[in-house]
# Entry
Amino acid sequence: MIEFKHVFKKYPNEVLAANDFNVKIRQGEFIYVIGPSGAGKSTFIKMMYREERPTSGEIKVNDYELQKIKNSEIPFLRRELGIVFQDFKLLPKLTIFENVAYALQVIEKDPETIATRVNYVLDLVGLKHKVDAFPNELSGGEQQRISIARAIANKPEVVIADEPTGNLDPDTAAGIMEILERINSEGTTVVMATHNSQIVDQYKHRVLEIEDGKIVRDQTEGGFFQDED
Amino acid sequence: MIEFKHVFKKYPNEVLAANDFNVKIRQGEFIYVIGPSGAGKSTFIKMMYREERPTSGEIKVNDYELQKIKNSEIPFLRRELGIVFQDFKLLPKLTIFENVAYALQVIEKDPETIATRVNYVLDLVGLKHKVDAFPNELSGGEQQRISIARAIANKPEVVIADEPTGNLDPDTAAGIMEILERINSEGTTVVMATHNSQIVDQYKHRVLEIEDGKIVRDQTEGGFFQDED
Amino acid sequence: MKISTFKRHVVESLKSLKRNGWMSVAALSAVTVTLLLVGILFSILMNVNKVASDIENDVQVRVLIDRGTNKKQEAKLKQNLAKLHSVSKIKFSSKEQELKNVIGSYGKEFKLFGGDDNPLNDVFVVSAKKPEQTVTIAKEAKKMKHVYDAKYGGASAKKLFNIVDNIQKWGIAISLLLLFVAVFLISNTIRITILSRKNEISIMRLVGATNGFIRWPFILEGAWTGLFGAIIPIIIVDLGYVWLYGIISNSLASTGYSLLTPSVFLFQIDTLLILIGIVIGAIGSGISMRRFLRI
Amino acid sequence: MKISTFKRHVVESLKSLKRNGWMSVAALSAVTVTLLLVGILFSILMNVNKVASDIENDVQVRVLIDRGTNKKQEAKLKQNLAKLHSVSKIKFSSKEQELKNVIGSYGKEFKLFGGDDNPLNDVFVVSAKKPEQTVTIAKEAKKMKHVYDAKYGGASAKKLFNIVDNIQKWGIAISLLLLFVAVFLISNTIRITILSRKNEISIMRLVGATNGFIRWPFILEGAWTGLFGAIIPIIIVDLGYVWLYGIISNSLASTGYSLLTPSVFLFQIDTLLILIGIVIGAIGSGISMRRFLRI
Ligand SMILES: Nc1ncnc2c1ncn2[C@@H]1O[C@H](COP(=O)(O)OP(=O)(O)OP(=O)(O)O)[C@@H](O)[C@H]1O
Ligand SMILES: Nc1ncnc2c1ncn2[C@@H]1O[C@H](COP(=O)(O)OP(=O)(O)OP(=O)(O)O)[C@@H](O)[C@H]1O
Ligand SMILES: [Mg+2]
Ligand SMILES: [Mg+2]
# Structure
């Protein structure tokens, strides 16, 4: 469960990237976040995992109230979220295997379990043959898929994906969507910022549209509704 | 003019990313490079500006024969090309203005000319108000547009763009396409790797399709033809 | 922390050391050069100190024996002197020998005073265990039978003490300065390498690693850097010291002064170098990271 | 290079210094601490050297004057001695003064030889300009009229020369070691900061910058780092030296030895520190970049 109440975010340079966000995302939902470049989609998403702090307002993610959370609790919040970053954020000096494994090592899984799970998710995104490569030896789309693999590796309750198909061709993108659909059908919440209108049209889900730091549309499949407080 | 003759590229890890590429791109052409993730599009493009060297074969770009070029000539080759990188490659410690200006400073333009030109191209991509921001203060799509602005800043003979709309919403992407169309109509060659099928469909140009390191299609608008030697 | 996690940290730290390539080489060589300087200068300073205190210990009390004292009485006096617990050595010098010294310093005219004309006394040259005790020894000796006078160099000895004291004080000051510099440079180097990995650290945090989890491999990597960086300095200092010890000891032999024994001294200095390396490497690493672990 | 381009490089280098924040601070402080060490140790070494050579120069030839020589003849002798071009100072010491010295060293019995019984000679104590010249002076003096004998300390002087020589040799060795360490550490620090900017450099190349264009701001930034890093060491060394000079000079005054004059010495050491800083900063920077400019 993710809930934003009167959330404002003003960056130090005076850009107002979130102007009174009020959103509630229930466990198990699939929600698209769309809007033009620079609208505030990534900011919205970054506030969920506390990369950015709101200037004011309340954010609740699962059982964490982010305005009250202590620094030492942040890692535990993030472990409940699987995050696909817009710029991938792979560790440059770890191999693909180690990058994905990292997300499991932090929760101190034992090495065998980690190996099995890493190979499984790498297979899912079609990159099992790249286990020993380093990030800079991969194509853009391949790096993006590693980021996706890492996000789903520890079976998080919520997957937050920022533009996860930006560097993927339509076929590969469809493959990724199938994966997200499947984990969503198993109960995982999925929040996905995207520019890909084909995907939004094809896989129908709730759509949140942000424009210039304001939520201008919050629409369940097929219909409009105004966001309630 | 860009010409590939029997170009092979094998990365140290044995991946064959270019398998006998034979392509000729005439001055003033607009060509899409498409294909699935990891096919070899970026490798193809990187070989044009000598970020990667082919394992064998001949590449000619404008008047440079890349297999013979001296290290000290590479900067001059690159100045004739405007490059949009898949991962943007902005200088993190320079402001947006300085980033774009850099491409003009290297050719020792005088400061006034630089200022005028930088403001002009930033205006083109709709980011004039961000001149003083640093790259990490921009959204993904904004960074991508800066990379585009920098590529066209010194009016290069050839623009090489790797996935230039991957992080852009459809409207902004259309804006960028208009710019590329216009500079192309003024005589600039445009090579553009993309996954965006809507764009390829809407703005009709020659299409080069790569799959698994092989050129599988080289099609002018509306028709197929096999690539000649 | 689970054992498997600890193992992971160790493996990870070594891997990272390797994969950071030139950065690791640069950090390692900074540690190496710094510890080399510390090793060499410390060896010199501590030996200068040692020789200085040898010189200081060399100050002697000259106990002048009453003329007409017979051999037996002299032996008794020697026993009494030896009983003073602060006395380390007693040497007899006859008045003829004393006269020779005078002639050596002031000229052959004094030959006139040879034989029975010799106005000098037989002397016991007494060395103190500690230089501060010379004064007491002289006082005690004066009270003894058959002692004509007891002198301990007076002003000139005090001047020597003063010089030696100064050498030792400066030695300590330089050593402290050197230690401070070494600690600072090593931790600063480690800090720079960590600053350059700011990005990596922030990614680690973003994928749910706790500060402890992030920190351990870095701390261990710092410790390895310190440890490996101590190897070459230790080899150079050890071999160099043994070699120079041979040469210098020889030429010092006649003076009675000596350098610090290699076996003991090298063990100490090696330990010091390894400790500085590991501890400062690890701590420097741990502290430098704090900045990045706040957010 | 156009003037506007050169201006740009200067501006760029300063901007970069500022924007690299903690990295610049770390590099600057490494330079600062290294130069501080160099400054302090060099000051000490060069003064030890100075005092050692003062001591060496202090070895004197004692020219014993024939008894019965009258004042006029003595004055003549003094003139003759002064004519020797290697002589720097001549001091007269009467036989009464000489006797006092003997009494001071060997005991009051020698008081018996006061007055006309005094077997000693009047003496001219002659200082040489260079210690090696003492032997020649002694030889020349012996040939002169009214000279009874001329002595120059012999073995004990040679021993002193030896010690002083050793001190100076070691001083030079330590100075060289120190210089090497400073050069290495400063260039190494600069190298690490550049290694951490590998990425930036490769981007610059990708957008068409020539190696020269890329290199200049880095070289200038290295030079600034060296220059700014020299400021604090210069201040500390200058103030500290002036302060200690006051104290130590005072206590040395009686001995006739002296430290290096602050005005001259500080100018030299300040120049040295600035030069090391700028030159090594710039060169270290230029060299470290070569690796990245090949591709
Ligand atoms: N760290 C920052 N400091 C200052 N301004 C920022 C920062 N991050 C983002 N912004 C600004 O906030 C606004 C929203 O940015 P955000 O990254 O949320 O956009 P976005 O919707 O994700 O765009 P895109 O589709 O291009 O990724 C933009 O105008 C951007 O320039
Ligand atoms: N530096 C490298 N070292 C080793 N292999 C590499 C390197 N760069 C790319 N590859 C491999 O070469 C193949 C082609 O990569 P390339 O980046 O050209 O793909 P692409 O067509 O641009 O893909 P995308 O659409 O995902 O960007 C991929 O399998 C990739 O893993
Ligand atoms: Mg975004
Ligand atoms: Mg690519």
Remarks:
- Residues 50 and 107 of chain B are 19 Å apart (CA to CA).
- The interface with chain D takes residues 49, 51, 71-72, 74-76, 78-79, 83, 85, 89-93, 102-103, 105-108, 110-111, 150 of chain B (CB under 8 Å).
- The longest strand of chain B covers residues 16-25.
- The pocket of magnesium ion (ligand 3) is lined by residues A 41-42, 86, 162; B 139-140 (CB under 6 Å).
